[in-house]
């Protein structure tokens, strides 16, 4: 039934359109508006549903390049997930430990993990880059990045 | 203020110390980021937006424009040296540029590309200067119905012209529009699709989308290809010298493609990429020696390079005169305008002449800077390409995170950024183009407002579009651009790709 990858995607998209439509229909009414807030979302929901149906019945075969593009080896997937985890740790600790510490650690750690072996230049780049960006934003642009546990 | 006076006041902005400095920074950073394989002008502009927050809007926009055409310019270097285009608009440059570099004539190829880009860029600025005020004058009389129709046309055009499946492009556009409906509705105050989360009330910031779908998604691709050692490819550049004979050969394609590229750039949906492919194909068709194309032909290199830079100038026409971007890149650029509180459109030329003429005047200066940057400094800039990928990846991730944090000071938006990064990567994986998504996201809010204003005027009746000849024509064209490719599924673009493969084999 769901032989082609496009058909699987089409089903997911149709589900998204369905949920979106249900919420659109339950939006509160505003009595004085001629065109209320739910008109455009309803239209969009049906439009997405329509395109999902078209995609489902689209007979075009995937090209070789397209097939290759979605091939992802297990080791590569793990690398991507690890970087994702690094980013999530960075975000969750950014406001607690501060920009300088987190950014230096992130750049050094992430580059090391991805295979950068020159530890000295890695260390210099990560610290100098963090300091320059922090200085640029806080003092020149007056956009305060989180200081965290460092008092300046 | 007439055009001449306007341009003079623009040059005052461009030639001020601050103006010169920021044009230079813009084109330099643009060239730098554009050269990185995988990072295109959208990422370049999005990464630079946070830097402009506290700047004077005129200077900031002059810089952002520089980033844009600098990125297109820089993309050609990595196309020629590595056969790894940094930008889709320079893919066609590699067809003849890379074979030339392999023959040991990399320096010459870079010089030809620089001169062709300069010519295309400069001619298109002149045309931009002539046509934008004219279009602005017409557009002043446009009401919401015409605006809705124009934006609708832009959206359908980019979807039907984008690479790959048309249906997927339309789905991408529909999703972009759906995402922009999240937040408080500006006309009734109803909160839509926020699930009670206060962080979503103001909607999702466009920088979250731009950096997520483009920069972070590109990071994923960079991570997967991080062991690709083409980056360390250290080859001799050879002489930069171009003979008189070469110049003669270049002049034909440069003249033709400057104009053709500009026109294609003005059209909604088409842009640097399509302009460069069409330039390559037409020059090959009219050439007396078409067999040379693909083997290091000077014409084959000059044509797409002229056209992609000319198209970049052309893309500014609808952006500045109508306030409607015609491509993903100009959509992000529009976002940069709006962040700075400048609304491009027919009134820009009257309300903010210093911004309007400043940008145009700075493009003359910027093109000269690019020529200077690219000719003598090329050997040094080429070293940029040897920056270790793991480090580059970490830096791009940090830039994206800071960019978002600096607008919201809220980690919620950072999680959203990561979510859109994942969505962007999945879209790439399953061949959904991202440009229609970002364009729909930028245009969506304006389109909804225009549509509702139009229908409020007519008391809810769609027949109002029948009474407006301009709007009706535009919608008619849009419907055709949807229907024709859905049923024929044939595209010039794929023809060009087939030709490329033929050339290589």
Protein described:
The complex is a heterodimer of chains A (152) and B (505). With 152 residues, chain A is an all-alpha fold. Chain A has 6 helices and no strands. Chain A folds into 2 domains: 5-69; 74-140, no CATH class. Chain A has helices at 5-25, 39-56, 64-69, 74-97, 99-113, 119-140. Chain A is flat and about 55 Å long. The termini of chain A are far apart. The mean pLDDT of chain A is 89. Chain B has 505 residues and is an all-alpha fold. Chain B has one domain (3-504). Chain B is globular and about 70 Å long. The chains are: A mainly alpha (152), B mainly alpha (505). At the A-B interface, helix 1, helix 2, helix 4, helix 5 and helix 6 of A face helix 7, helix 8, helix 16, helix 17 and helix 18 of B.
Mean pLDDT across the residues of chain A is 89
Number of domain modules of chain A: 2
N- to C-terminal distance of chain B: 57 Å
How do the helices and strands follow one another from N- to C-terminus of chain B?
HHHHHHHEEHHHHHHHHHHHHH
Structural class of chain B: mainly alpha
The H/E string of chain A reads HHHHHH
Largest pleated sheet of chain B: 2 strands, antiparallel
Largest sheet report of chain A? none
Rg calc of chain B = 22 Å
Indicate the topology.
The complex is a heterodimer of chains A (152) and B (505).
Chain A: H1 5-25, H2 39-56, H3 64-69, H4 74-97, H5 99-113, H6 119-140
Chain B: H1 3-15, H2 17-35, H3 41-48, H4 57-82, H5 91-139, H6 144-161, H7 166-180, E1 183-184, E2 191-192, H8 206-224, H9 244-266, H10 272-286, H11 298-322, H12 328-339, H13 348-351, H14 353-374, H15 378-381, H16 389-408, H17 411-429, H18 435-457, H19 469-488, H20 492-504
Antiparallel strand pairs in B: 1-2
């Amino acid at each position: 039934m769901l032989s082609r990858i496009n058909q699987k995607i089409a089903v997911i998209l149709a589900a998204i359109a369905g949920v979106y439509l249900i919420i659109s229909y339950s939006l509160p009414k505003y009595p004085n508006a001629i065109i209320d807030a739910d008109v455009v979302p309803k239209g969009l929901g049906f439009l997405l549903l329509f395109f999902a149906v078209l995609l489902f019945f689209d007979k075009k075969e995937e090209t070789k390049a397209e097939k290759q593009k979605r091939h992802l080896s297990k080791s590569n997937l793990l690398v991507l997930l690890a970087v994702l985890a690094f980013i999530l740790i960075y975000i969750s600790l950014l406001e607690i430990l501060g920009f300088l510490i987190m950014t230096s650690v992130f750049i050094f750690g992430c580059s090391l993990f991805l295979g950068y072996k020159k530890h000295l230049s890695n260390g210099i780049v990560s610290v100098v880059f963090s300091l320059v960006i922090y200085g640029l934003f806080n003092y020149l642009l007056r956009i305060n990045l989180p200081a965290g546990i460092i008092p300046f | 203020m007439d055009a001449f006076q306007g341009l003079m006041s623009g040059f005052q902005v461009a030639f001020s110390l601050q103006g010169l400095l920021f044009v230079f920074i813009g084109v330099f950073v643009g060239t730098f980021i554009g050269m990185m394989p995988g990072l295109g002008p959208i990422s370049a502009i999005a990464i630079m937006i946070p830097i402009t927050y506290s700047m004077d809007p005129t200077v900031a926009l002059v810089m952002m424009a520089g980033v844009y055409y600098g990125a297109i310019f820089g993309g050609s270097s990595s196309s020629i040296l590595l056969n790894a285009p940094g930008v889709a608009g320079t893919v066609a440059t590699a067809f003849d540029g890379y074979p030339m570099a392999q023959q040991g004539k990399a320096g010459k190829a870079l010089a030809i590309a620089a001169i062709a880009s300069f010519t295309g860029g400069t001619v298109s600025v002149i045309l931009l200067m002539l046509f934008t005020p004219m279009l602005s004058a017409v557009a002043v009389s446009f009401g919401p119905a015409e605006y809705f129709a124009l934006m609708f046309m832009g959206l359908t055009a980019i979807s039907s012209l984008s690479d790959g499946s048309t249906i997927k492009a339309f789905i991408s556009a529909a999703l972009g529009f759906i995402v922009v409906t999240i937040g408080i509705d500006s006309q009734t105050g109803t909160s839509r699709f926020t699930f009670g989360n206060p962080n979503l009330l103001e909607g999702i910031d466009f920088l979250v989308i731009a950096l997520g779908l483009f920069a972070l998604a590109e990071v994923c691709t960079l991570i997967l290809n991080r062991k690709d050692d083409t980056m360390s490819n250290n080859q001799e550049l050879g002489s930069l010298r171009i003979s008189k004979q070469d110049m003669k050969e270049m002049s034909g394609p440069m003249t033709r493609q400057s104009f053709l590229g500009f026109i294609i750039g003005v059209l909604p949906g088409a842009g640097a990429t399509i302009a460069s492919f069409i330039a390559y194909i037409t020059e090959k068709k009219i050439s007396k020696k078409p067999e040379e194309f693909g083997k290091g032909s000077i014409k084959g290199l000059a044509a797409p390079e002229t056209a992609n830079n000319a198209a970049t100038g052309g893309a500014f026409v609808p952006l500045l005169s109508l306030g409607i971007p015609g491509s993903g890149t100009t959509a992000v650029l529009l976002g940069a305008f709006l962040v700075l509180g400048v609304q491009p459109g027919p009134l820009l030329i009257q309300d903010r002449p210093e911004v309007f003429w400043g940008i145009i005047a700075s493009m003359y200066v910027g093109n000269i800077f690019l020529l200077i940057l690219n000719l003598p400094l090329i050997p040094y800039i080429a070293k940029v390409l040897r920056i270790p990928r793991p480090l580059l990846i970490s830096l791009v991730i940090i830039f994206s995170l800071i960019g978002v944090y600096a607008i919201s000071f809220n980690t919620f938006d950072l999680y959203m950024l990561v979510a859109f990064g994942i969505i962007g990567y999945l879209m790439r994986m399953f061949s959904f183009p991202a440009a229609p998504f970002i364009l729909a996201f930028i245009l969506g809010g304006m389109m909804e407002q225009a549509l509702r204003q139009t229908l409020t005027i007519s008391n809810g009746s769609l027949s109002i579009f029948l009474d407006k000849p301009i709007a009706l024509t535009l919608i008619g064209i849009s419907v055709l651009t949807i229907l024709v490719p859905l049923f024929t599924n044939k595209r010039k673009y794929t023809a060009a790709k087939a030709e490329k493969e033929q050339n290589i084999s």
